[in-house]
Amino acid sequence: GQNIDQPTEMTATEGAIVQINCTYQTSGFNGLFWYQQHAGEAPTFLSYNVLDGLEEKGRFSSFLSRSKGYSYLLLKELQMKDSASYLCAGMDSNYQLIWGAGTKLIIKP
Amino acid sequence: GAVVSQHPSWVICKSGTSVKIECRSLDFQATTMFWYRQFPKQSLMLMATSNEGSKATYEQGVEKDKFLINHASLTLSTLTVTSAHPEDSSFYICSARGVEREGLYEQYFGPGTRLTVT
Question: What whole-number distance in Å separates Cα of residue A25 and Cα of residue A68?
Fold first, then answer.
């Protein structure tokens, strides 16, 4: 079966660094996506990895290890506006996204 | 960048009535669009995949006669919730799949439509 696992909730302090982990099992693999979703809004695209390694994009970085079925999203210099849910999604061989339940990130001052 | 719009952004309707939600890709052609539903404190659930000019493919457990999807053009897909009931109250989000670029198909999401059935 296909499955995406990520923690339900995490708490971090403003200005700190947080790493959100995701493990995946998909039928075939065409990449791993990270999306950010604020309450009541649609998800917005953060990153895409299909090759192993780290992709850096400003304060956000995403890492992928295909052999381990593992990815993480790294957020640096946390800001209060980063409080949101972070969704991990694997793309299967049919190019469908398999979604995790999301990780609610709470930023404290 | 690619923009997807949805209309309306929110709607309140009475039980038993039908509601149509439009999803448009504004600056690109989308042969494939997806419809998702999100209940409070739950993740996005794919309802159906809509391909231009053909019948939609529904996920297991989604009633195709209740959730009518029409993808009549490369820029427009519509979702009609027929005979809506309070349990259909949810956040409905569409996304459009872009062209392949170095093996990547990014999905572009609409802003969502919040449906409340009274």
Answer: 10
Whether chain B has a CB inside 8 Å of the CB on A51: the answer is no
On whether the CB atoms of residues A99 and A4 are closer than 8 A, the answer is yes
pLDDT (tens digit per residue) in B43-71: 778 899 998 888 899 988 999 999 999 99
Contact A87, A46 (CB under 8 A): no
Q: Residue B25's Cα: distance from chain center in Å? A: 12
Q: How many CB contacts within 8 angstroms connect chain A with chain B?
A: 43
- Number of CB atoms found within 10 A of residue A15's CB: 11
Instruction: Count Cβ atoms within 10 A of the Cβ of residue B113 and give its class: 0-12 exposed, 13-18 middle, 19 or more buried.
Output: buried
What are the residues of chain B with a beta carbon less than 8 Å away from any beta carbon of chain A? 42-46, 49, 91, 93, 97, 103-112, 114
Question: In terms of CA atoms, which chain B residue is nearest residue A94?
Answer: B105
Angstrom distance (rounded) from CA B62 to CA B68: 10
The tens digit of pLDDT for each residue in A17-65 reads 999 999 999 988 888 999 999 988 888 889 888 889 999 989 999 999 9
Q: How far apart are CA A105 and CA A48, in angstroms?
A: 20
Sort strands A70-75 and A60-65 into parallel, antiparallel or unpaired.
antiparallel
Closest to B9 in 3D by CA, of B80, B103, B106, B111 = B111
Contacting residues of B for A96, CB less than 8 Å apart: 46, 49
